[in-house]
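We modelled the chain as a single entity of 404 amino acids. Its sequence is:
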Amino acid sequence: MLAGLRESLGLVLTAAHVRHGLVSGAGAWADVCGRLCAALDVPLAVCDVQVDRHHPGGLEAAAREVRRAALLGLGDEILALAHHRDDQAETVLFRALRGAGVRGAGGMRSFFRPGTGSAGIWRPLLEVPRRDLLAYAREHGLSWIEDPSNADSRFARNFLRNDVLPLVEQRFSGASTGLARMGRLCGEASGLLDDLASLDLATMVLPGSSRRLLAPALALSSARLRNVLRSVLDRAGEAMPEEDRLCEIERQFREAGAVEGARMPVGASAICIYRDCWWLEAVRLVPCPARLGWDGKSPIDWAAGTLSFSPGTGQGIAVLALAGRACELRARAGGERMRLHAGAPSRSLKNLLQEAGIPPWQRASLPLLWIGGELAWIAGVGAAAEFCCPPDAPGVIPVWSGLG
């Protein structure tokens, strides 16, 4: 459909096939995609992914996460998906049975962006019933591949699609249409809840930071706090957790001990609390190398971020302190000490990190810069007194993006 419209609409198309390696013989599907795309003169990207068979959310959730990441990682402006009305009905019923709330029961949206700068997700066929698509395909002699795993009703969604919805349709004609309509209405209600969440989140803004203030969140009623958490998770592209799970997250969120450090995984994200702030971050902690040499200029990828170095005057590390000395980035090994101010005693890295407000789970991955065998700078803490740039002197300002 899009290939037929690309000239009139000015579209530049690329097709994508995700190869999970979960079904025997699925490797040949990419060849079928290749032939179809060649006939349509559309480039094809084949993405090979590894699915975690021990994912806590099950195999379906694991495959969905890696597929989503692969497709959104292609760098396209718009990602077009072929979900239809029956898929929407199935999604609404599945989420309703899980007690996912109004936002979850809102089903799939015809268009949205999961985050700033990411591809927009577009579902142009969401209002079209499966029977119409099937009739069109047969009338025009189209060929397709049936995924044999779709017939396996051991998977929850397949059970609803193959066994439950057809039975419901026999008793309640148009049930799928009704479920899809309910999804749209819940989507409208969800939009109003998003507006309320935006008002509440505005009270938690911490200027110059991606983190949010904790006190205004704790002052909300339970219903409004859970609404904020749902909204933040939804904006991150996470599936809505079940009510029991969300209530447990709220309980942990409100615990007095949470300010000492709490991290609650939800899908690929984690809700984090430390001291007077809370925020959302990737659930997977990226390991860092033990040590890396640095040439004194080039940015370096380190754990979940990039370490960059900007020139400055009277800031950061003195350029003279770098001259002719070996520079190395190291991970925390234990026993490190550093003096932040001239004339002050050196202090343990543990105390410095606590004072700087670095969450416990981030401390092992912090980059530490050593110059000539001496600890000169710690991400999130600053430069050692011996290496600080004097006023009006040229300096180098290290910044690590992994702290958010």
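As a brief sanity check on the tokenised model: The chain has a mean pLDDT of 90. The longest helix spans residues 175-202.
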